[in-house]
């Protein structure tokens, strides 16, 4: 953890860059070109204007106007490599208050809030101050919502806004530094810690940290119990399997109750009904059932993925069990190398395929995407162990003699034919294979994943930044336009930090949830193989939680603070894995208890009726325990949820009766802005006269006074674009 703190401290800007964000709400990274050739493509649109970038300028003007029309003020600064940075904030406090009040009224109308907001807007805001997460979320919606819903309709990298690379809020480095220091100095998160995460990064991220904390605390029992079983009992203990299965049921049911309590406490219960829709959603297509509406094409990439894993499994069995020639010690790692190098690429491709299928299915939200990601990870994570436990062990005597087709994989290394000849009879299985696999996935893979998440991105960023500097210098020498920003001295350190943040990848909490759900699956499905598994996960998760905080604070752009009322479809995944664990654990205990070798490659030694009966009883015991635990927890449920529902109905009915015949939108915007406040030069000059004389005041005031109004921002932005355009050579002029 000391390493995380030192990395953070050595990679944050100091001075003005660290202590202020100049009141900026969001930064829009507008990249009008990525290479000189793409700029020349713009030139070809208008041959008489070889020195300009008409398409880029037109889109930039449209971008500024769209932001201005919804009451957002803008400042423009030069970016890196054919980019313009557009700094955005709400033009007036009055506009922000109106948006906040309108959002709270909407929450009440949809049942998120129990009591209607005070009709007097100012009193409502005094009673419930605006959090940073709420402010940033509403500003982001103003930028991205469709125009018919009161937003600017700007969707990065899609439609008419393909030049918009990203829209991101700036990190609060003072908070981040204190946050990392605080997390590394304590063992457990308390309610205050979770509230701080919620107020800064939104409920969606806060739910992840709350889940991690609950999961970590619950792991203490199976870690202690598993350690004792690892020392005292034989592998594949029925006693361990029963207790572990009970623990899984209790944890899942407890978390269901816990996330409901958090949703009520944070005031977001039921907010999923009004969650942000996917920008690609087309309203003319209605999907009634997210299950029956799925596209069948999803099965094609899944089959290809399963085939790759099965092939690598067969190669590994052949090399480790059959091949007996030179380099066997090293060749046995060949399948692992294949999976390590190919699987990330395939997973990326298949995740992209899942995203495209979600677009084709036209779902309103990303829940369907999460379900597809879980299916993909179920296959990639658990299939190798399933193959070993239920294919290799029972059927090795039948399968291994037919693996001679894989002799080509090691033939160049063999000294004679006997070293690669598959045995026709008398083959003995490797009794340690299953245990070695589970150790790899629960220990080695966890360490590798942590390095890939935190260490590798840090190294890549440093290398890419150096490469970018070299490329910029080369481009400048070749006449590609100046790459050295002309920054105001007061803003230089701040703008350097912003440009660095613009190069970071966006944070996706789904990735972190996926890791924890997959880990829970190993615990539920296969920990009976190696009872030390929960000890490994307990140690890993203490580091993982702090590593994720470090990743959010430094490795990625600050996430948009979205709201959520649960962990979403991942809860269904937890329930499924808990149920599946009752089946696989029973099957593993039946097959391997005793000597730990199972049927030793001879399926005829398996009593099928005994296996099916064991699975049947285990599953029904699981369902019975689940029902009992759910009933027990419902008895100690939060004491006011039923009363809360009754009050919501009564208050909503009364309020609607009083407001009957009135325009809800006008009530929400009383004293505020109805359709977006148009920003003009006269408006800004009036506000400037009321605050301070030009050239005086705070650095934040001076930052937002350097460009007076929309026209000046557009003019300076065009100047940046033209300045960065490469000077056409004689050959270029001939082409144009």
TrEMBL record:
One GO term in the molecular function aspect is: chloride channel activity
Q: Which residues form the Anoctamin alpha-beta plait domain?
A: 23-164
Name all Anoctamin transmembrane domain ranges: 197-647
Q: Name one GO cellular component term.
A: membrane
Q: Which domain of life is it from?
A: Eukaryota
What the entry lists under Pfam families is as follows: Anoctamin, Anoctamin_N
Keywords in alphabetical order: Membrane, Transmembrane, Transmembrane helix
Q: Could you tell me which residues belong to the region Disordered?
A: 684-707
- TM region(s), chain numbering: 205-233, 239-255, 305-323, 329-352, 373-395, 438-459, 573-593
Membrane-topology descriptor: Multi-pass membrane protein
Quick check: keyword Transmembrane in the entry? yes
Q: Where in the cell is it found?
A: Membrane
- Keyword check for Transmembrane: yes
> Entry's PANTHER family?
ANOCTAMIN (PTHR12308:SF73)
Q: Return the protein name.
A: Plasma membrane channel protein
- Tell me the organism: Cudoniella acicularis
